[in-house]
Amino acid sequence: MEKSNKTLTYWESAKYILTIVTSNPLFKIVLLPIILLSVLAAKFVVYVLMVVADIDMYFSTSIKKESPEALMIRYMCTPFFHYVIILLNEIIISFFISSIIRQSFCAFTNEYVLVNYDTFHSLGSGQIHAIIQRRLFAIEDFLKLLILNVFHDLTFICIAFYKVYTDIDHRAFYANVLLFIVYLVIMWYIIKMRVYFRLKFNDTYNIVSNKCYSILVNYDVIKSYTNEELELKKLDENLQKVQYQSIIFSCITSFAEFAQKNALVIPNGYILYLALTNTIFTKMNSSSGFLLYNKLFLDVKTRVSKITQDVLKVSQCMTDISDSRIVEAKLDEEYRGINITSFKKSIVFDNVDLYINNLKICIGINLTINKGDKIAIVGKNGSGKSTFLNALLRMREYEGSIQFDDIEMDKISKYSQRNIISYIPQNPGIKEGTILENLKYGKSNISDEKIFDICKEYGSHKIFSNLSEGYHTEAGEMGKYLSGGQKQRVSFIRGVIKNGDIFIYDEHTSNLDSSSQNELIDYIFTSLKFKTSIVILHKQSHLEKFDKIFGFYNGKIRVYNNYNKYLEDHHLY
């Protein structure tokens, strides 16, 4: 299955973001205070401009409407109250935005957890991490720009236009409104162009991010093969594409700035000309009318220019927020279906085909796994062994019939099926936290004492106790403070603690010495003898212990009911 490259339309993006914002529990609480404080702040800006206009009149004409003391008090008080209101508004908005970021972080991460196996892995964890980070930064910038900047400036423009209508000239008001509408239409088309090229930029940047992540994760391999220059060369080749898209994006931004700087000033110059010649807008021909209009217009022009830049940034943020790369991606739908609580009888494959991204890996599978069976799986790399296990874990899609206790497997909820499986993968999947926290990952409500008893039974207590902080030793990111063998011990015990009816082992002993390998394999036939176990193995000496051997070769699975039958074909694997 290919990843989804479909993106949301502009209105779909707006609706998506609106849902995020309005679903926050603080939204209804802060909405009215933010609106009221923004209106008050805008009114005080107009009051400041009126004070400045009155001071200009005081110096430039013989008309003295107020005393110097009164003008001084007005000049000092109006900005002060304006900044107090802005401060209160910013504090409220900061609380709201921090709550949105927290909510969004969980929501964005959950979106990728919910997609199916193929979609998730087609993106790669590096690219997903970069997308989540970009979306979080974007939603923070979006809210700050929209609430603190755009909404505040638009409120001021509305109040300024109203002031022009009531105190200066209603015809000048209509002319400016018409001019503003034309300006918005022009900006709309520029924004659409920016959105298109922003998506192009995001595509190339995601590839670079994944490449960078791959270099950092594979540090040891790159160093050991002395391939630093090769990796950096490949990274730079991808960066050239990012640079190209960035140049196009920047040029469109510069053109938008050029257009918005001229779209208001030149037409308004003609409005002033008509006022100066007494043709129209005659009320602006007085000193007080012209001074107030000019100051309002200059402030409106500045704010419109600022709004344009902010709106362009907002549109970029909207693109980044909604550009999840998983629009219309197939979801895992793990809760849909029949709930099961145990494995009672058998799993029967009837003419089953397995796929990876629409490519057939295994065809015509016919086999039965009975409760309590010990199944060994053998085959060369790429023969479909892990794909087979992933089908049982409901990670991969399949065609044909798989009967799980006489129930068609695709009718069973994935969640309940996975809940009865203990999965011990080749990559142990150690999470940040202590050894104890990692062991409890399979069953969070288990007591520490019970964990210690299980570790003693399965020969791991001494290994964990001898670590620097015992069971409270930090494992580190991806278990970087543990050896390969210690990590696989944690993974094995975690599966035992979960206590599933079915145990699936995907080369779980690959990092262990021979003695430890033999020990963990023996547990399958002793302590775990009543469990159904399916094990990928490479070591031939263990195969004769198993009830059945599934051989993967050339897109087929051969079932051997005893070791002697397997020996006849062992050269194939």
Main sheet summary = 6 strands, mixed
Amino- and carboxy-terminal Cα gap: 28 Å
Return Rg in Å. 34 Å
Number of domains: 2
CATH architecture of the largest domain: Up-down Bundle
Low-confidence stretches: none
CATH top-level class of the largest domain: Mainly Alpha
- Estimate percent helicity: 55-70%
Main location: membrane
Keywords: ATP-binding, Membrane, Nucleotide-binding, Transmembrane, Transmembrane helix
Organism: Vairimorpha ceranae
Transmembrane segments: 29-53, 73-97, 171-191
Entry keywords:
573 residues, alpha/beta, ABC transporter transmembrane region fold, Rossmann fold, six-stranded mixed β-sheet, four-stranded antiparallel β-sheet, 61% helix, elongated, ATP hydrolysis activity, membrane, nucleotide-binding, Abc transporter
Mind explaining what this structure looks like?
It is a single chain. With 573 residues, this protein is of the alpha/beta class. It folds into two domains: 10-322, Up-down Bundle (ABC transporter transmembrane region fold), CATH 1.20.1560.10; 346-572, P-loop containing nucleotide triphosphate hydrolases (Rossmann fold), CATH 3.40.50. The protein contains 17 helices and ten strands. A hairpin with a 2-residue loop joins strand 9 and strand 10. The longest helix has 49 residues, at 228-276. It is elongated and about 115 Å long. The model has no long low-confidence stretch (mean pLDDT 84).
Quick summary:
The chain is α/β, with parallel strands linked by helices.
Annotate the secondary structure layout.
Elements: H1 10-22, H2 27-60, H3 68-114, H4 117-123, H5 125-168, H6 170-217, H7 219-224, H8 228-276, H9 287-322, E1 346-356, E2 359-370, E3 374-379, H10 385-392, E4 398-404, E5 407-408, H11 414-419, E6 421-424, H12 435-439, H13 448-457, H14 461-465, H15 484-498, E7 502-506, H16 514-525, E8 532-536, E9 548-553, E10 556-560, H17 563-569
Parallel strand pairs: 3-8, 3-9, 6-7, 7-8
Antiparallel strand pairs: 1-2, 1-4, 4-5, 9-10
Helix pairs in contact: 1-9, 2-3, 2-5, 2-9, 3-5, 5-6, 5-9, 6-8, 6-9, 8-9
Main location: membrane
InterPro entries: AAA+_ATPase (IPR003593), ABC1_TM_sf (IPR036640), ABC_transporter-like_ATP-bd (IPR003439), ABC_transporter-like_CS (IPR017871), P-loop_NTPase (IPR027417), Type_1_exporter (IPR039421)
Subcellular location: Membrane
